[in-house]
Every structure is written in C-alpha cells, then in structure tokens.
UniProtKB/TrEMBL annotation:
Family designation: Belongs to the methyltransferase superfamily.
Record keyword Transferase present: yes
SUPFAM superfamilies xrefs: S-adenosyl-L-methionine-dependent methyltransferases (SSF53335)
Superkingdom of the organism of origin: Bacteria
CDD domains according to UniProt: AdoMet_MTases
InterPro entries: Lys/N-term_MeTrsfase_sf, SAM-dependent_MTases_sf
Protein species of origin: Flammeovirga agarivorans
Record-given protein name: Class I SAM-dependent methyltransferase
GO molecular function, one term: methyltransferase activity
Alphabetized UniProt keyword annotations: Methyltransferase, Transferase
GO biological process, one term: methylation
Entry keyword S-adenosyl-L-methionine: no
C-alpha cells in the first residue's frame, strides 16, 4: 500500500457519503438471502455496504486501509460493525463468513496475480460452504473477465453464478455534476470439494 494513496483516501472519506448510496442490485441480493449471518466487506471505505448489510441483519466486519473511512463506519453504526484498518492483501480473516464482498476495491490495486491469488486463498479459507464471494468492479480493461477467468482456473470450488451490469450514479465530493460508474457485479458460490 502506498502511503500517498492511503492519504488520498483518508482525505476523500472526510466527505460524507463519498460514493453515494449502495447499489439496489446488491441490496436485492443480500435481502433475498434466507438466512443472514456474517458478512465481510473488504475495502469497505466509509461503510455504505456494511451499513446496508447491518440493517438487513448481518453481523458485519468492514476492512479498509483508510482509518478515516473505518472510523466513520464504526461511529455511524454505533460500534455495531467491527472495523479493521488493514490493506486488503494483508488482512487475515479470523472468522467464517457467509458473504465476502469486494466492492470497487480490486481495480484500485495494481494488478498482481500472485497477491490476488494469495488473497483469494485466504478469503476462501474463511468462506462458509454454500457462501458467496461478491466482486463489484469497474468495467474497463476487461478487469472483470480477468478476475472471472483467474477465479475459475485457480479456485474451481467457487462456482460462477452471474455477472450483472450496474450503472451507479453519485456526486463525488466537490463535484458540480453527477457521475456515473459502469460496474460489473459478479457472484461466485463456494462449494467445498467432497
């Protein structure tokens, strides 16, 4: 993690609701899960998705290297969300999760196949059988295709479920007009080998 990049995110997250509201498609997916247990929001920022999951009944852990973002999330949740200040590649989950979410975080990292595979190995070891890995990423440079192919090749026990196109409208801090982000929402279901 570059210190100047972390400082940039700390400054960005000083603005309330920097990325706007959660995606309706993510809300629908989480809401429709019959049981709601533990959710890991890796790269949680200010916790917009963590807060959504908490309101839906999940026990939530949010991880981000921005202390400002994590502190904002923990305070906003009245300390109901466990906040961890850590780089996504260095985080070692100590719990088991029904859902692991990486929203708009993978594409913010430099591509490093070795680091990504190591991270996914750690995440897989903490994902419940029949649990879900959700990855939301920008639709540029075929990043979603690369991630899908990497996961299918390296982790055959993660079964591809869908890839939905999302359009996310929001006002970035200090912007004068609304922005749109074109996103891919990928879902993989974990099925342990027998």
């Amino acid at each position: 993690m570059a210190t100047n990049q972390q400082k940039g995110w700390d400054e960005f997250y000083q603005h309330p609701d920097a990325f706007g509201a959660p995606y309706p498609e993510l809300n629908n997916f989480l809401e429709n899960l019959e049981q709601k247990r533990a959710l890991l929001d890796l790269g949680c920022g200010q916790g917009r998705n963590s807060m959504l999951a908490l309101k839906l009944g999940f026990q939530v852990t949010g991880v981000d290297y921005s202390a400002v973002g994590v502190d904002t999330m923990v305070t906003k949740s009245n300390h109901q969300i466990e906040g961890v200040v850590e780089d996504i590649y260095n985080y070692n989950p100590s719990n088991t999760f029904q859902v692991i979410l990486l929203d708009a975080v993978i594409h913010c990292q430099e591509e490093d196949r070795s680091k990504e595979i190591n991270m996914f190995k750690k995440l897989l070891s903490s994902l419940e059988n029949e649990g879900f890995l959700l990855i939301i990423t920008h639709q540029w440079d075929m990043r979603e295709t690369y991630l899908k192919e990497t996961i299918e090749k390296e982790f055959p026990q993660l079964k591809y479920q869908f890839n939905k196109h999302l359009e996310h409208f929001y006002f970035p801090p200090l912007a004068e007009e609304e922005h749109i982000m074109e996103m891919s929402f990928m879902c993989f279901k974990y099925q342990k080998n027998d």
